[in-house]
Each structure stands twice: as structure tokens, then as C-alpha cells.
């Protein structure tokens, strides 16, 4: 199994809603990542988890709350988002925390209305 | 900014021709990775080249790295219509022992059948 699975594939939410994005990998990878990608832009790193601990937070607003319940799962909890948060949210994982390729999921297309 | 910068931003070639994309970055790196993204989908890892390597091959792909010039290139030989995609370089900068893969703006490649 060399896949990173993200659910849901599409999500429409209102500005007062609370929702969660989920990411799962069964490759035994020790590092997991969240990226945000706006249209026609490169992915921007949001968070890095290493051995289930948050190691990098790229000054992301608190309305985005990551969680790593175990080594295979990574969640991104969303609350009180703004329309400008609409984007493709990508999850990735890598074997180690340095010098290894990152495998990406297909992303969740989020629309905030 | 620590991310890489690709050149050109857009490239259109005929099937069978070679495509060359360049990437420049500003600070020292652990490694540099190249990814491909089809429209609106997840990223696919192509090649990882370490800072002590100068050239790497994978099928029709050839990547070079010149750390003295802080630059890398991706060559796709004998291009096919299926190679149409956006290509991103992703320098992995030293970040306290954690992999911090950040993406450049990308090169949008169109291969015309």
C-alpha cells in the first residue's frame, strides 16, 4: 500500500460550520504534512508532524487545528473559516523526517461559503 | 523566501521533443525534489537528488543539481502528450532536523500531440 488517502474529496462548508479533513497512510511513515494550494499557485506548507508530534506550524491561523491521533492518521479541524480559505488541501507523508520523498494524497477541495 | 523558483513558468513543445525546466533557490539544502501535478490533483514524486549528488536519472527524466550555483534542472526526453502537467521543484531546507519541503511556483508544461 503506497497510498495516502484523503477524505472527503470535496467539501462545502459555511463560515459558522465545524468540519474535519482526514488523511490516512499505512506505509509506516513517521512524518505527515498538511499543505494548502490555491488555484494556479504552488502548495504552501501548513503543518509538519514528526512521530505524532507537531514539529512545524507555519504561522497558520488558529481556525485550522491539526491533530495526529496515531501514526497512520492526520486530521485537520476547521472552524469559523473565511471564503478566502477555499482551496485544495493536500496531505503528505514521508518515511523519515529528513531526506526522504513525500507521498501526497489527492487532496480535499474545500469551498467556504 | 526559501522556496525554489522555476523557469520558465510555462513551456509548450511538440511531442517527441525534449523539455527542460530550471529551478533556483537561495539557501543551503538537504536535498531537492521534483514533483508533477496534473490539473487539480495530488502531486506525484518524480526524483529526489541529495545535496552531494550532481545528476540522477529515472526513465526519461534526468535531474541535475549544482549546489555552487544553487540551481537544478529537470530534463524530460522524448516527451509525450501524457507529460502535460505542472512541474514543481521542492528544495528541502535545513530546518532543525525536520523535513520542510517547500514548492516553487512551478512550470506548466504542455506537450502538443
Structural shape of chain B: globular
- Percent helix of chain B: under 10%
Classify the beta-strand content of chain A into a percent band.
Answer: over 45%
Helical segment tally of chain B?
A: 0
Share of helical residues of chain A: under 10%
Class by SSE composition of chain A: mainly beta
Using only C-alpha atoms, the radius of gyration of chain B works out to: 13 Å
Number of helices of chain A: 0
Q: Give the termini separation of chain B.
A: 37 Å
Question: Structural class from helices and strands of chain B?
Answer: mainly beta
Largest interface: A-B, 29 and 27 residues
Using the alpha-carbon principal axes, give the shape of chain A: globular
Number of strands of chain B: 11
Which H/E pattern describes the elements of chain B? EEEEEEEEEEE
| Mean pLDDT over the full residue set of chain A | 93
What topology emerges from the helices and strands here?
The complex is a heterodimer of chains A (113) and B (113).
Chain A: E1 4-7, E2 10-13, E3 18-25, E4 31-37, E5 44-50, E6 53-57, E7 64-70, E8 73-79, E9 87-94, E10 102-104, E11 108-112
Parallel strand pairs in A: 2-11
Antiparallel strand pairs in A: 1-3, 3-8, 4-5, 4-9, 5-6, 7-8, 9-10, 9-11
Chain B: E1 5-7, E2 10-14, E3 19-24, E4 29-37, E5 43-50, E6 55-58, E7 61-66, E8 71-76, E9 85-93, E10 100-101, E11 107-112
Parallel strand pairs in B: 2-11
Antiparallel strand pairs in B: 1-3, 3-8, 4-5, 4-9, 6-7, 7-8, 9-10, 9-11
Summarize, please.
The complex is a heterodimer of chains A (113) and B (113). Chain A has 113 residues and is mostly beta strands. Chain A has strands at 4-7, 10-13, 18-25, 31-37, 44-50, 53-57, 64-70, 73-79, 87-94, 102-104, 108-112.
How would you portray this structure in words?
The complex is a heterodimer of chains A (113) and B (113). In chain A, a hairpin with a 6-residue loop joins strand 4 (31-37) and strand 5. Chain A has no helices and eleven strands. Chain A has 113 residues and is an all-beta fold. Helices cover 0% and strands 58% of the residues of chain A. Chain A has strands spanning 4-7, 10-13, 18-25, 31-37, 44-50, 53-57, 64-70, 73-79, 87-94, 102-104, 108-112. The model of chain A has no long low-confidence stretch (mean pLDDT 93). With 113 residues, chain B is mainly β. Chain B has no helices and eleven strands. In chain B, the strands form two sheets. In chain B, strands 2, 4, 5, 9, 10 and 11 form a six-stranded mixed beta sheet that branches. Chain B has a five-stranded antiparallel beta sheet with strand order 1-3-8-7-6, with no helix packed on it. In chain B, strand 7 and strand 8 (71-76) form a beta hairpin. Chain B starts with a strand and ends with a strand. Classes of the chains: A mainly beta (113), B mainly beta (113). At the A-B interface, strand 5, strand 9 and strand 10 of A face strand 4, strand 5 and strand 10 of B.
Amino acid at each position: 500500500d503506497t497510498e495516502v488517502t484523503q477524505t472527503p474529496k470535496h467539501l462545502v462548508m459555511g463560515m459558522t460550520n465545524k468540519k474535519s479533513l482526514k488523511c490516512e497512510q499505512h506505509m509506516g511513515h513517521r512524518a505527515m504534512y498538511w499543505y494548502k494550494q490555491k488555484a494556479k499557485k504552488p502548495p504552501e506548507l501548513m503543518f509538519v508532524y514528526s512521530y505524532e508530534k507537531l514539529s512545524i506550524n507555519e504561522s497558520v491561523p488558529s481556525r485550522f487545528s491539526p491533530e495526529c491521533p496515531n501514526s497512520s492518521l492526520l486530521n485537520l479541524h476547521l472552524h469559523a473559516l473565511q471564503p478566502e480559505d477555499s482551496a485544495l488541501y493536500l496531505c503528505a507523508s514521508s518515511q523519515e523526517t529528513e531526506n526522504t520523498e513525500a507521498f501526497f494524497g489527492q487532496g480535499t477541495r474545500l469551498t467556504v461559503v | 523566501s526559501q522556496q525554489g523558483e522555476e523557469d520558465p513558468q510555462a513551456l509548450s513543445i511538440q511531442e517527441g521533443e525534449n523539455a527542460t525546466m530550471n529551478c533556483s533557490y537561495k539557501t543551503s539544502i538537504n536535498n531537492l525534489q521534483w514533483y508533477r501535478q496534473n490539473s487539480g490533483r495530488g502531486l506525484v514524486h518524480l526524483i529526489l537528488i541529495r545535496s552531494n549528488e550532481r545528476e540522477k536519472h529515472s526513465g526519461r527524466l534526468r535531474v541535475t543539481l549544482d549546489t555552487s550555483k544553487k540551481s537544478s534542472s529537470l530534463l524530460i526526453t522524448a516527451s509525450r502528450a501524457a507529460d502535460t502537467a505542472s512541474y514543481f521543484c521542492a528544495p528541502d531546507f535545513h530546518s532543525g532536523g525536520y523535513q520542510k519541503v517547500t514548492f516553487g511556483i512551478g512550470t506548466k508544461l504542455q506537450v502538443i500531440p
